[in-house]
């Protein structure tokens, strides 16, 4: 496991969270309640609806429906309507708004009683005429009392109304004949009850009192679709048959599909037909355009980022706009965005600096909409990232057989992503999930020479695992820790002294692009110093050299202006020749200075080092270092000696000098052994370029036979002695010696 210099997994998280504004964070959690600010342009619709309701209230009343699915903003529109109704002009009659929340009634049996009682209470609180309000309240409460006395639930519209009244009356008649002694009392009770059973009279009294009150009523009933089916039926029937008072308009918010299913006992068509008889005017919630949802989501995210003190890095900011457009498609309604913001209040701080912020936003959004897909990503990361989680035996991918692996490779060859088989079956859901997966787990490269680790994408299995754990992983260093090393080269030096130098270099390379303000020149100094130490300690392998080259190249590419030239010069002047050769070759080739592959020339803006003079000077400095290494008999110690000699010859058009260098290297058996190591019996060296460092094959064969290498390389000496082959090698050497440097070209554009 990698040494972390005391920077444990939890400490970095605590350090960053302690800086957060806790009050701001808490205020950004959104409860499921109506919005008070008009973020979606709904207030104008609500104002016009309020005007219409005020006009309707002057007549016999109406039932108006606000229709929309869950989370579409019905309650918010209702809130705007109530606000608009309360802002009437002086010349307008004041509307009494009655709020009835059926959720507050715990007993289904008293829903209607509670509704009528709430109307009475609202009138007494908001009436312009207290005397008339008291009268209306009295009539309403008498009406409620009768409903209670008659066990009104039996008398809701339906075939049993008369029958149930008969049952109550007959029970009194039975009691009258039960005993002679009690007969008189029972008959008396019966005579008293019968006149009071006139429900129509009581209701007419309420209607008359409401007309005399002279103020219209708007009864608001929200969240009807959240009620159980039997309570939905009770409320809708009550509005139509029990509480249909004059000058009273009902404004009901509901999901039409849910309510229709309840009214039709599962038969939506029948329920819709019944609902149309109850609701005279239905207003669907105004649909949101994509730009509205995008704007709404953008405001939520920006508020969240501010509360968390989170500033997008350049690579995250570049992906923000397309991600926001995708988020507007994933979110079905505003409530999805609000709930997503709540989720991000946890996941963003927990993955801060470790996982790409934009990826976290999109993955949380897709997880919220398709929780099954989130679970599949966790169980089968290989289908999404191409690799299982590191050192994780809990996922199904660890036991994946070779046939499954071959199937995955074949799918990729066909251009089919491995994750497609896990997407939802519904066509619309499939399309949205596919867009999200293409964004998060692209099957093609994000760009040349770029991998998911560069920008902390969750397409990197380590970053995906870090996201799922929401905490540090034992087998993977925190990106924040590597970023600290890159900002403090002295700490990087300590880490490179550990036993896992190669792993440290790999992580440094991976997380350089996501590091804010790395010390480029300081890191280059540290890397070069460590590379030289590795050379002296004979630690240099070709694999380790490639790692050093990758890190140095990326450091140069990330630097700007003079810092880039300084970092480049440091690598050329001091890095081991095997490392500096690769860096120099790339810089020279991109400026068209490598005749072997002129097609590698790039526009100046895309060059690793866009300064011709700096590259020309680097070729001179590096070439002098090669000459010194040859003179001191040290060149054969370089793991990439052949590449160094090739590059010396090619960049300087100096094959004569290169051949002399080969002769000097091979003058000792130690040097000869290193030179011959690239040639293996049985390998097919069909290209003549493999022998471009040999000027005289016959002489070279003689040198082999006279050395301690003869037994091992007699086959090679024989090959070089073949007249036809020997002639071809000599012709090639003659041609290479005659190569001339072209006239100085203008700086690359």
Automatic annotation (TrEMBL):
<dbReference type="InterPro" id="IPR011646">
    <property type="entry name" value="KAP_P-loop"/>
</dbReference>
<feature type="domain" description="KAP NTPase">
    <location>
        <begin position="42"/>
        <end position="345"/>
    </location>
</feature>
<dbReference type="Pfam" id="PF07693">
    <property type="entry name" value="KAP_NTPase"/>
</dbReference>
<dbReference type="InterPro" id="IPR052754">
    <property type="entry name" value="NTPase_KAP_P-loop"/>
</dbReference>
<protein>
    <recommendedName>
        <fullName>KAP NTPase domain-containing protein</fullName>
    </recommendedName>
</protein>
<dbReference type="InterPro" id="IPR027417">
    <property type="entry name" value="P-loop_NTPase"/>
</dbReference>
């Amino acid at each position: 496991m990698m040494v972390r210099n005391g920077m444990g997994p939890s400490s970095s998280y605590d350090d960053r969270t302690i800086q957060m504004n806790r009050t701001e964070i808490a205020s950004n959690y959104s409860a499921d309640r109506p919005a008070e600010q008009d973020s979606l342009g709904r207030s104008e619709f609500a104002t016009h609806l309020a005007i219409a309701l005020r006009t309707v209230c002057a007549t016999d009343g109406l039932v108006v429906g606000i229709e929309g699915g869950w989370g579409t903003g019905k309650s918010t529109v209702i809130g705007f309507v109530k606000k608009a109704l309360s802002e009437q002009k002086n010349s307008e009659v004041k509307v009494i708004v009655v709020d009835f929340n059926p959720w507050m009634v715990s007993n289904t049996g008293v829903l209607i009683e509670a509704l009528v009682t709430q109307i009475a209470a609202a009138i007494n609180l908001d009436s312009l005429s207290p005397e008339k309000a008291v009268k209306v309240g009295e009539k309403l409460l008498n009406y409620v009392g009768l409903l209670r006395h008659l066990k009104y639930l039996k008398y809701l519209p339906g075939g049993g109304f008369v029958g149930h009244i008969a049952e109550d009356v007959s029970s009194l008649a039975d009691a009258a004949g039960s005993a002679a002694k009690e007969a008189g009392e029972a008959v008396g009770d019966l005579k008293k009850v019968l006149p009071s059973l006139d429900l129509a009279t009581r209701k007419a009294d309420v209607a008359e009192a409401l007309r005399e009150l002279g103020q219209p009523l708007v009864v608001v009933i929200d969240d009807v679709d959240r009620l159980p089916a039997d309570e939905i039926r009770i409320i809708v029937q009550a509005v139509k048959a029990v509480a249909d008072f004059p000058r009273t308009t009902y404004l009901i918010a509901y999901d039409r599909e849910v309510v229709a299913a309840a009214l039709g006992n599962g038969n939506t068509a029948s329920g819709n037909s019944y609902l149309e008889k109850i609701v005279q005017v239905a207003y669907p919630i105004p649909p949101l355009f994509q730009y509205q949802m995008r704007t709404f989501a953008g405001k939520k995210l920006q508020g969240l980022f501010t509360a968390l003190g989170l500033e997008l890095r350049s690579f995250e900011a570049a992906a923000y706009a397309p991600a926001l457009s995708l988020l507007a498609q994933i979110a079905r309604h505003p409530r999805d965005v609000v709930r997503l913001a709540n989720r991000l209040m946890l996941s963003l701080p927990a993955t801060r600096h470790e996982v790409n912020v934009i990826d976290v936003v999109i993955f949380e959004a897709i997880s919220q909409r398709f929780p099954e897909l989130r679970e599949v990503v966790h169980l089968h990361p290989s289908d999404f990232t191409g690799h299982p989680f590191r050192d994780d035996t809990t996922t199904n991918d660890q036991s994946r057989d070779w046939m499954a692996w071959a199937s995955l490779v074949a799918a990729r060859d066909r251009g089919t992503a491995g994750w497609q088989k896990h997407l939802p079956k519904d066509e619309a859901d499939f399309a949205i999930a596919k867009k999200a997966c293409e964004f998060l787990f692209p099957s093609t490269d994000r760009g040349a020479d770029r991998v998911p680790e560069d920008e902390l994408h969750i397409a990197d299995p380590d970053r995906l695992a870090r996201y799922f754990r929401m905490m540090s992983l034992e087998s993977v260093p925190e990106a924040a820790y590597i970023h600290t090393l890159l900002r403090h080269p002295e700490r990087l030096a300590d880490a490179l002294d550990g036993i896992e130098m190669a792993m440290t270099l790999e992580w440094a390379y991976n997380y350089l692009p996501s590091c804010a303000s790395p010390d480029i020149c300081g890191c280059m100094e540290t890397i070069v110093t460590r590379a030289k130490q590795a050379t002296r300690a004979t630690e240099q392998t070709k694999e380790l050299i490639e790692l050093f080259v990758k890190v140095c190249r990326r450091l140069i590419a990330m630097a700007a202006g003079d810092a880039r030239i300084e970092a480049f010069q440091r690598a050329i002047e001091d890095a081991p020749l095997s490392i500096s050769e690769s860096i120099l070759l790339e810089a020279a080739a991109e400026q068209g200075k490598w005749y072997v592959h002129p097609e590698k020339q790039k526009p100046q803006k895309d060059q690793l080092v866009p300064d011709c003079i700096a590259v020309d000077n680097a070729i001179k400095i590096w070439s002098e270092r090669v000459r010194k290494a040859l003179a001191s008999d040290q060149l054969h110690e370089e793991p990439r000696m052949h590449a160094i000699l090739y590059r010396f010859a090619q960049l300087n058009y100096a094959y004569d000098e290169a051949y002399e260098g080969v002769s000097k290297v091979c003058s000792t058996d130690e040097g000869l052994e290193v030179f011959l190591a690239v040639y293996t019996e049985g390998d097919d060296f069909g290209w003549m370029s493999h022998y471009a460092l040999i000027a005289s094959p016959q002489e070279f064969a003689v040198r082999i036979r006279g050395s301690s290498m003869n037994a091992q390389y007699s086959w090679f000496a024989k090959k070089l002695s073949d007249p036809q082959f020997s002639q071809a090698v000599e012709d090639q050497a003659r041609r290479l010696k005659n190569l001339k440097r072209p006239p100085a070209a203008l700086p690359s554009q």
